[in-house]
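Incident log, structure service

09:12 report received: a user says their structure output differs between two submissions of the same chain.
09:20 pulled the input from the user's history:
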Amino acid sequence: MVRVQNLTRADALSAVRNPLAFIAERWTPTSRTVQRAALAALVMAVVIVVTGGAVRLTGSGLGCPTWPKCTDDSLTATSAMGFHGAIEFGNRMLTYVLCAAVGWAIIAARSQKPWRRDLTRLGWAQFWIVMSNAVLGGIVVLVGLNPYTVAAHFLLSTALITVAALMWQRTREGDAAPRPLVGKSVQQLVWFLVVASVLLIAAGTVVTGAGPHAGDSSEVERIPVSWENVAKLHAVLAWIVVTLTFALWFVLKAVDAPQGPLRRTRDLFLILLAQGVIGYVQYFTDLPEALVALHMLGSCLVWIGVVRVLLSLRERPEAVTDLPGPATASALTRA
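09:34 re-ran on a clean worker, output below:
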């Protein structure tokens, strides 16, 4: 048994003043632990999107008709609220699980030796996005599932996934300045892919806002456009993204690029193909709830794939500190 050091009054005051520094002085996580913490935050960022979709698809968006309480008189869902109240309140509770995952990532990054400030900042960026999106989620309920606020809610979740994916990647890299692995023309092609993917996701939110799954059985405002026409535009953008991805893979092979960008591009292409199949099947089968939920998961995976392709275009080795050689050391000793 390892004896636990007794905490003094000074230790308690230090923990209150700066709890992260207090923990960092007493715990040094391994690199693998930091990576797992960042991955847990990323996984939870995706899970909260999928469960949020489940709230909408089951018509439970107003299962808790107010916010921050579930009802005017109760913080939690009551038995009288039934299935919809349980679904909506359960999704709200998952926000705390997401906060715990992000908190673990922040603590692990802050406690790592040597301390990498960039990782800690990425962790805190996730925390503030989660807080902002929680408030926006409350506004969504208070305005009766207005489709524009629902779209903003999803886009802010996508921003969270972006930062979480970046932090996860950075935990597996060094802290030196990035070095490009491909030329400028390839980088420009990837940025075209990124822009097209952003437009694809944005068009998807319009399809959601205009489509039949409003999130509640009552009359909910919808975006006043034909969802079928927007879905066709969404499909065109999807084909553009697929074409750009295939073109990128072809160019990377032609310039004999490293295996990292090639593998990431291949993975993205496979995800896009699976997502395309799901998209077309759900369109021709009148948007069944299960396929729509799977399509939302696919949207998250597509965006993570795009971010990973972008980040694979450079490498960041470990920063090397110049140490004095034997001759320099001897000169310093003589001085």
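09:41 both user submissions now match this output. Likely a transient worker issue. Closing.
09:42 reviewer note: The beta strands are 179-180, 314-315. DSSP finds eleven helices and two strands in the chain.
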